[in-house]
Each structure stands twice: as structure tokens, then as C-alpha cells.
């Protein structure tokens, strides 16, 4: 649906059936309903469908439809024989149907946000004082909580692969690009009134693109679950291999896989069978605090090591070759937060592009600080020895602070696995043309169990978490964080220097070019590194 249309300031309401002109009543509160494909809009009787950019203005199907992208054409004479000039004067009463839908959805969205901010629940009202719903601070925390996750444990390895100096440059560039991608997605949502990745792709770029977006999202979320299993096994390995009472079998690779599978069956799988696990988001928020605590313990451990032995002499500032590109892919995976960008815009109070920019700036800056500290001090602590998950480098049985961090990271991983499985499930339902509310519980449980089991098997037998981070960061990170936002901006209409200025024009192309380079070189380097290291 094109958004670069000229709209009248005197807006008219929805068209009425059986009339040759638009009524002068106020626009009804409920916007028109869409058909199942998301592209067609039902008429008042819900018996026929017409394209969303068409509007029925008369009783006859042949004479009653007109394209919303053009003003209604007036005949040379009206039905009463009046000249065409009078018909042209009446055209000012007509309004593009797309703008009507956008404004109706905007009012509904603002009303929903207002109700959330003025709740009668005393607990929620107290929370509103601390962090108001839909505010800049709340949105920034949502961005940070969706960004911080399993990717943090691979950042010391990213610093090792790219070198300290190059990794810092990568981090700064990725953060700037990530913030700008939030800005572009906010502009697209503001212009189109759409707050869903699949619908945006389908409306702006056509049928088929929504399925490709769904595929990329599924790969991203499923790969995230695989990385969580690898991270969980690393945590358990740190406890088991240093345990004086564990048997030799438990300390072997099959033993690690057995204990990981048992924990998956007892803790993770039951959470994956639920249709809605919104309550786990509260637990996930608590788990974020453990991630912050993990960063603090990494700094403490590194400081103690540096004080005891001094600075290492095998640290590298700049690496070259494919190894350095692998570090970029890991950093890109760590900063994938754009999945929730449309939803954050939809729930924002007084939504505007500037407020989204401030929220993204605060949220991404917090993540960048944590990532920088974890990656730098982890690399200073272990140097070239850290080539995979940093969790495999500590002995939690001797370091009580690290033991608490490991338990907190286990909580984050278990909850994160279940939360990542929800988009995987929804992607499958979208592909087959249904949604979770229409699926019986037992069928949903079977689908979730199969996907969770597949992620478990992949995580148990892929030994290097950096391999997963590299593939997901290069392929999915390039599309979600760079290519899709820039393409949405281009296809949303009015993409010219005269309409958006040179800044956004060049910035959009720069983001697209960066995404293409990341997908091609990042994915190739990840595959090359996986082959050389035998996974």
C-alpha cells in the first residue's frame, strides 16, 4: 500500500453502501475488517471482499468502486446534468481509504495505551509511577531486555577473533546501524499504520515477501534456541567437570548431554507446551538482572587475574582474514533486537519517530556497555584461550560469585528457550494459514515439542556456540537488522531526496549495503570457520 499520496486536510468518513457520495457523519470507531489474506477488506455485509486500497461508494459493484490511490473521477456531467466543475468541487469531500484505516487504528492504539497507563490495579499504578507504560524508559528497557541474552557469552570470543581494536569498531558501527534501523522501522509504522513484520512485508512488497520474512524469523528464533542448549550444556559442564563426587561417565561428553537432556525434559519442555506464557516475561526480567550480575563477576574475575599475573602479552588489537569477519557476525547476533521494534512502536505512549529514537538510543547504549565490558574483560582474562563460550572458562565451584551467576544464566536460558519457541510456533501457524487460538492444545503441544526436541538435538551435537552465532548473525542479523528495514523504507512511498532529505536517503542505502555485505561475507566466513574447526 503506497504511502506517498496527497491527502486532503478536510477528511471525510468511511463510505456508505447504497450512496453515490460519502456521508458527512463522523468516521465510525471501528475500521473496516480485513479478509484472511490481509490484503482484502470486507464490505458492510461481510459477504464480498475488495482490495484494501479500493472503496465502495455506490450500490452497484461496477460503478461503486474507485481506486484509493486516485481521487474519484467526475464525469463531464453529473446525474442532474450539472457541469463537471461542480463534480470537481465535491472531490474535496473524499479521502483516501488507506488514511482512514491508519487514523482509525491510531485512535484504537492510543486508547489502548491510555487504558494501560490509567489502570485501576493498585500494584500496576505503583509501577506506573516508577516506569510508566509506553514511556521512553519502559520502551528502552524492553529493547534492552530483548537484546541481552545468550549472545553475551560469545562476546569474549568475538573480541579474540577480531582483536580488541577491531571488535570495538565493529561494536560501535553495529550499535549505530541498529539504532538507525529502529528509526526506519518507526518511520514505516508511522506512514503505514502497520506494526507487524509479516503484514508490513506483504502490504509494501507484495505476496511472497511475508513468507520470506517468516522464514528468516523462524531461522533466527530456532537458532537462538539451539544456542541456548549449547550455553546450557556449557554451564552444566562447568559444574560437572569440577565436581569431586561426579562419576567419570558424568564428566564425559555423553554425560554432559544426558544431564542437559534431563534438565530440558524437567524444566524447559513443560514451559514450551503452554499456549501463552506471558507470566514468564516477568521471570525473564529478573533473569536480565542476573546477566548484569554476570558481567560484574566477569569484571571482578578479570581484575583479580590481572592483579595476580599482570597484563597478558598475547593479546591482539587487530585480526585479519575470515576470522575477523566471524567476530562481526557474533556481534551482529548479539544486537538483534529489531524483531520487537514494530510492537514497541505500537505500545509507545505518544508514538513518534523521535521518541522511538530516544528509546533505541538508551536501550542499545545499555546493551553496548554490558557487551563491551564482558567482551573486553573476558578477553583480557583468558586471551586467545577463549575461542567459544566464556562459560566454559570458569570454575563455578571455586568462585561463589560465578556460581550464582551461572545459576542466573541457567534461569535466563531456560526462560529464553521457551520465549524463543513462541515465534517459531507462530511462524509455522502463519505458513499454514492459522493461528494459535484456533489450534487445540494437544496439537499445539505436539508442534512445540517437535521443534523443541529438534533444537535440543542440534544443540547437543553442535559443539561450538560461535558457529551458531556466526551463521545467525551473518544471515538473520543482516536481513532483520539491515536489509528489511531499509527495503521497507524504500517501498513505503515518497523515497526521494525531495521528500525525506539526503540524510535518510543515503542512510537507507548505507544500511542496505551493510546488510548485503553482512549476509554474504558474514555467512560465508561462518561456514568457512565451521568447516576449518570441524564445527
UniProtKB/TrEMBL annotation:
The lineage of its organism: Eukaryota, Discoba, Euglenozoa, Kinetoplastea, Metakinetoplastina. This is Transmembrane amino acid transporter family protein. One of its GO terms (molecular function) is L-amino acid transmembrane transporter activity. Pfam families: Aa_trans. It comes from Leishmania donovani. Keywords: Membrane, Transmembrane, Transmembrane helix. The keyword Transmembrane helix applies. It comes from the Eukaryota. Residues 1-90 are annotated as: Disordered. Residues 62-73 have a biased composition (Basic and acidic residues).
